[in-house]
Amino acid sequence: QVQLVESGGGLVQAGGSLRLSCAASGRSFSSYGMGWFRQAPGKEREFVATISWSGTITSYGDSVKGRFTISRDNGKNTVYLQMNSLKPEDTAVYYCAASWRVSGTIDGAQYGYWGQGAQVTVSS
Q1: How far apart are CA 18 and CA 16, in angstroms?
Q2: What is the pLDDT, as a whole number, of residue 99?
Q3: SS3 sequence, 28-80?
Q4: Beta strand pairing status for 118-123 and 10-13?
Q5: Mean pLDDT, consecutive 10-residue segments, the chain of 124 residues?
Q6: Angstrom distance (rounded) from CA 63 to CA 47
Q7: Of 26, 105, 116, 124, which is most buried, counting CB atoms within 10 Å of its CB?
Q8: Among 118, 123, 23, which Cα is nearest to 80's?
Q9: CA distance linking residue 68 with residue 86, whole number of Å
Q10: CA 55-2-121 angle, 5° bins
Q11: What distance in Å separates the CA atoms of residue 68 and residue 118, rounded to the nearest whole number?
């Protein structure tokens, strides 16, 4: 069982930066691949980024590639999403998730644990 709590969301102007954190409690955080997803009002959930258990493998959605960076600190049971050059279209609720796929995965169906979400709003 893993519990996930996101923090760091908020309101930022276009071009600005935010860093989301996801703190995990429970057992064996380092055994899970981790991911970030987002969902904007009226839209389907979108894959943002994923990272392997060791942090050596990462993958990004096309819309955030080159602007967002996912990382993790297994000693602190935390995964991060650094978001730079934010755009109004990045506005969404961002969710952290844990997957049994230790290498990480873009497939939301392979994540068994989800956080409650953090709102990110980018103003133009």
Answers
A1: 7
A2: 97
A3: CHHHCEEEEEEECCCCCCEEEEEECCCCCCEEECCCCCCCEEEEEECCCCEEE
A4: parallel
A5: 95 98 90 97 97 97 98 96 98 97 97 97 97
A6: 10
A7: 105
A8: 23
A9: 9
A10: 70
A11: 16
Give me the pLDDT at residue 17, please.
Answer: 98
Q: What is the pLDDT of residue 27?
A: 74
Look-up: residue for tokens 């978001």?
83
pLDDT value for 30:
87
Closest by Cα among 98, 92, 100 to 22 = 98
Give exposure, 114-123, as e/b (b: 16+ Cβ within 10 Å): bbebbebebe
- How far is the C-alpha of 41 from the C-alpha of 119, rounded, in Å? 11
DSSP letter (8 states) at residue 95: E
Q: How far apart are CA 31 and CA 21, in angstroms?
A: 18
Encoded tokens for 10: 């908020």
